[in-house]
Design brief:
single chain, 462 residues, alpha/beta, Rossmann fold, nine-stranded mixed sheet, two-stranded antiparallel sheet, 11 strands
Length: 462
Amino acid sequence: MMTRRITRAATAVLALLLGVLQLTPATAGSEGRRTYTGMIDGAVYKVEMPVRWNGTLVLYSHPYYTAEMGEFPIGHAGRPETAAWLLEHGYALAASDFTGRNGFAVETALTDQIRLLDWFETHVGRPRRTVATGSSMGAAIALMLAEQNPDRFDGALAMCGPLDLYAQWNLSLDVNFAIATLLAPGEDIDLVRAEDPAASVAALQQAVGRAMQTSQGRARLALANAFANVPAWNSAHEPEPTDLVERIQQLAVIDQFVLIGTFGPAGQAELARRAGGNPSYNTGVDYARQLARSARKDLVYDAYAAAGLDVRRDLAALARAPRIASDPVAARYMQRLGVPRGTTPSPVLTLHNTGDAAVADHERWFAGQVRAVGDPRRLRQLFSDRASHCAFSAAEEIVAFQALVERIGAGRWTDTSPGRMNAAAGRFGDEYQKVFDLAAGDAVRPPSFIRFTPPRLLRPSR
């Protein structure tokens, strides 16, 4: 192990001498903190040091970004209040923006984050502990970093992660395939390998808009989303709706902005450029069987009854529709870079909203992987009873992080029951209780840890 550390340090020094590593000197921050920024092999990074470092480094991996989202500052946690709390309590924070930051930047992330660790050890100091954390796509990256570099990480906190990234892309394809087949028949829509991805995205979004105008369209929209177990709940600040039309309206919003707007034809095209071909497929998928297994089938049956339609006719139409095959090279790329193994060489804590469109089903899948090839005693999974993606308060993120750090130090989990976690999170002030909603912005919400068993992931990659 010592030889490997010496080699890593020597490599970082050599890179500095060759001019590969560009540094910006540390600047004084709040109350004597230090901030380092720069670029390593094309990847911008940021490191923040507390006034008195406790020896633990928190390495954050960011979510999936698109150019349309605009520029995001390099972050160190899900909520800015979480990052501020960590610094105030002695934790060092580091994050790479990844080379080619937008899109499915997993391959570069796995390299760039380790290069940042090498830089940190050479220029700041060797951490006593290093924790990998991340949000959304970054959650899966954090798990893979810990799995692939067991001598560099002491634990991982994975927040709101579609942990089987390959499955999530295939689930998105299923939703888009059903929308195109049932709600836009005969239209020129390319779900993958699109020459004009924007046109295909627009056509799918328009089909969703038309569908919401009739009970028949709404029924078919409910069916499409059932193939990915998408929850009909999209507000972090409002309770889960019970009205049939309102529930499907919330599905329509998720479709237009997420499953179509981000992970539809344009996202598939970006993914294919990285993977060397199209990795997504629905060959061999029996959609009647998928509906029978779906946790959302009751909504589908209610919507079809209200519309006076026979769901079997639409399932037959899906069965007849031409399928989409993957390119073998691209499929292997996703199996290698989009599917954590679950080996748990160090403790893992996951945190997920029950009503997340990047479905909590991934947590159940990951627990199964850990049972097969890892150590279940090293895994703890927490759920927040709230809709929307990554809609956690800083208080919830902090107490989850504390539970992981306590497990790393003590070698066993402390009490993480919902009652205990809600009480711990509730002791923070209102500035730590704010939750972000994409439509409504921030609002103070009470802690909402809950016991929860997610549905089964409908299209697991392994």
